[in-house]
Amino acid sequence: MKNQAKPDDAGYVESDGTYWKCEKGQWKFWRKGWGWCRYVGIVNQKFLDKFIQL
Q1: What is the pLDDT of residues 1-54, one digit of tens each?
Q2: DSSP string covering 1-54
Q3: DSSP structural state of residue 35
């Protein structure tokens, strides 16, 4: 999601501007108006390769 404000506790960003964090082994993405949302897909190397660490 482009043009989102960066949450203070975000650890990663992907090319489309979506902010992510990994907390206690659970991946979460940021949605303005919703906050942190849990990711429920497969976490593999292809998934991890899309992130840029902040």
Answers
A1: 555 688 999 999 999 999 999 999 999 999 988 999 999 999 999 999 999 999
A2: -TTPPPPTT--EEETTS-EEEEETTEEEEEETTTEEEE--S---HHHHHTEEE-
A3: E
